[in-house]
Automatic annotation (TrEMBL):
Gene3D superfamilies: FAD/NAD(P)-binding domain. Its EC number is 1.-.-.-. This is NAD(P)-binding domain-containing protein. Keywords: Oxidoreductase. The keyword Nucleotide-binding does not apply. It comes from Candidatus Berkiella aquae.
């Protein structure tokens, strides 16, 4: 059996992930003439945006969407909330217009350090040696469910899906109710989307309106209730909130609301949508973090303890998602640090040269 050898390349910086933050980082690196490549495991720019539901609208108006070198408000009416497809088209235009060096279908398998203190980025098609790595894979990797997935797998009397698989109600049974589980902005927005398509919908929302408003203040302050609905708005529209979903036993849903326990059989619902977020996965960093607790999620600070490794696109501690402008801020901070390191290295090399001669 012949072994297939992957080509090797040496480049200054590798950016991983062609989402908004990765695109911003690539643009800024290109502006500074820093040789780099942007690795994307799919064939798509901003691939996670393609998994949003059909009627999704951005919580922010266009004028508040800033990427380096451009403001979305210059292309879409400033007070308009862009749709999913408009945002995808914008990101695709941004990548093409700025000729960003994206290598599609490049799945990163691991990142480790070489003896020469360079990073080794191993992909499905090539191996790269580089000085800096900017990891922008974001928080949306593994769907998270409200209860043990083994119990979810035993549900047989209804269709149970994660919000990442929800597009529309086109294939739902109109005679049956839809249950949306979750307390974030996505859960409330999906519930409203289902209602607007003429379906009966209920919520399993664990928190009060006050808690939800506080946790999503950055979204509600820039939107109205038809874009990012509040719990009170949905209840006024006739959506019943059954409280926290605490268990599923023998195809029976168990809810808790204000210390009261209620039960509903799964077959009362045609579809159950779990809009309960994602569990970030940074397995590709295992070789670097093998001496620390791998259960820890990299912080949103973006400049960590390993020199040359940057983690971007992670939500702030009090936020559930990454606002595009925050991702841009992280990209600017990272590229500024890279430039600072380069300047320091140039000075050090000059001193060595002077000392030698």
């Amino acid at each position: 059996m012949l072994h297939q050898f992957k080509p090797t390349h040496t480049i200054h910086t590798i950016v991983i992930g062609a989402g908004p933050t990765g695109l911003a980082a690539s643009y800024l690196l290109k502006e500074q003439n820093i040789p780099h490549i942007l690795l994307e495991q799919t064939q798509l720019v901003a691939s996670s945006w393609h998994r949003l539901w059909n009627n999704y609208k951005l919580a922010m108006p266009a004028k508040k969407v800033e990427m380096p070198g451009v403001n979305l408000g210059d292309y879409i009416r400033q007070d308009q909330h862009p749709s999913r497809d408009e945002m995808i088209a914008f990101f695709e235009w941004y990548a093409a217009y700025h000729a960003l060096p994206i290598c599609f279908k490049s799945s990163v398998l691991s990142i480790r350090k070489s003896f020469g203190n360079k990073f080794i980025v191993d992909t499905n098609s090539a191996t790269y040696f580089c000085d800096k790595v900017i990891c922008c894979i974001g928080p949306r990797q593994n769907p998270k469910y409200p209860i043990d997935e083994a119990k979810i797998a035993k549900v047989t009397q209804t269709q149970l899906m994660h919000s990442s698989d929800y597009q529309s109600c086109a294939n739902f049974d109109p005679a049956k109710k839809v249950l949306v589980v979750g307390s974030g902005a996505s859960a409330l927005s999906i519930a409203y989307d289902v209602l607007n398509q003429g379906y009966m919908v209920e919520l399993a929302c664990a928190f009060s309106q006050e808690h939800i408003l506080a946790a999503n203040q950055h979204l509600y302050e820039s939107s109205d209730e038809t874009i990012v609905p509040t719990l009170g708005f949905l209840e006024e529209a006739g959506i019943l909130n059954r409280g926290r979903l605490i268990d599923i036993v023998d195809n029976t849903l168990i809810f808790e609301k204000e210390s009261e326990i209620a039960k509903m059989v799964c077959k009362d619902y045609g579809v159950i949508i779990c809009a309960t977020g994602y569990q970030p996965s940074f397995q590709l960093l295992n070789h670097l973090f093998r001496y620390v607790d791998l259960s820890l999620t990299p912080k949103s600070d973006c400049i960590g303890e390993i020199p040359g490794l940057y983690i971007a696109g992670i939500p702030k501690e009090n936020e559930q998602t990454v606002i595009i402008s925050h991702g841009t801020e992280q990209a600017k901070k990272i590229v500024a640090d890279i430039m600072k390191c380069q300047a320091t290295q140039t000075v050090a090399n000059h001193r060595k040269f002077v000392a030698k001669y």
